[in-house]
Amino acid sequence: MTIKLLSVASEIYPLIKTGGLADVTGALPGALAGHGVAARTLVPGYPSVIAHLGKAKLVRRYDDLFGVPATILAAQVAGLDLLVLDAPDFFAREGGPYGDLGGHDWGDNWRRFAALSRAGADIAEGALKGWRPDIVHVHDWQAAMTVAYMRFGPAAAIPKLVTIHNLAFQGRFGAGIFAGLGLPAQAWGVDGVEYYGGIGYLKAGLVSADAITTVSPTYAQEIRSPVHGMGLDGLINGRVDRLHGILNGVDTNIWNPAADALIPKAYHARTLGARAANRRALERRFGLESDDAPIFIIVSRLTWQKGMDLMVDALDHLVGMGGRLAVLGSGDHALEGALLAAADRHRGRIGVQIGYDEPLSHLLQAGGDAILIPSRFEPCGLTQLYALRYGCVPVVARVGGLADTVIDANEAAVGAGAATGVMFAPGDPLALHGAINRVMDLHRDKPVWQAMQRAGMRADFSWTHSAARYAALYRSLIAEAA
To answer: Which reaction is recorded as catalysed by this protein (predicted)?
Structure first.
């Protein structure tokens, strides 16, 4: 029997993306199809989404959805079966999905994503003629209220699954919004939406779901501790029998160095020499001097979580050791400024582009020698998976999904030909310096370096295994609810 799945998410590649969440929600439906799961994904009607819809069918109309008119449109886009909440008052805005052009959160985010969640719950309750899901899978705080609305409504019996992509983002709002959420009085409480005297969207989802997943096995264990639990470790430990760590995969059609139209020269593990053309293109793009020293790359949000403050402090050391660096990212304005200042101070050795550019991220992976990911915590991480696939050696903190996917180049792993990267203790400046030193030494030993590249490129981080785990979990939850 084919499982009918409703996925609810605030972004989806290739229509709208701010990070790895979009890559996952864009790739997982296709991978699930091979396991008997037919997914439809509900997303907000941002301008970039509406622009790609083409011929869409109106399947539901709201005269008043949290104070604004809205419709649900159905369309097939880029192989995805989409349901789009078209509410221009909420989503047709200049800026990002969550904030304005200045980087400030929209003041009505509580209402915008309550509307998305209410629409998801309505679909679960049978709002679409001729289609009702067997299971509902929601992603992060922006969609988490879907399962709270279901729990306190007529769709309570339909299995509900919440995936935590990053526990640091929880959707916390003041208690005053409760009256506007349209929930019954019994939803207010520690076993409902109340969270430290306010409202917690993610918390409401976690307490209401039939299963909770994280995007790596190690992160599933880390969030049970006060250090990484972000105030929710007690709740999570109380529901540990419902907790599953399922590693993210990558879309191997999009991220494939042997057939990537976004890079100057395609290559595979047996033709690593062809990477030289991409390396030269990367040098030109970032104004780097041309020599044999390794090019470190960073493709990241520039935030404290990602360890970018540690990276800023390590830049002089990296250059002093002879390395070069190309950075693509945006985030904290102080960190952006510090990176730009370092590029000005070390012209020809450091190049920085502020912002995000999908094609450029492919060039960085295809032309860079080593990717730096000094995160303080990392639920899964996708850039290290792309790097492994492209023969760009990951240099990562030993946390979360980074610890699950990279094999450190210790003596035993190098001797066995199993090493794929360099790992170091998170949050430790000296450990980061030491990792940079290790990369410089390893890069000089070309046979060892190429063996690491090839080992990483051989690793299978497609969605094959993870999609099978999700499909098995869906079936077990459906059977449990029967």
So the answer is: [(1->4)-alpha-D-glucosyl](n) + ADP-alpha-D-glucose = [(1->4)-alpha-D-glucosyl](n+1) + ADP + H(+)
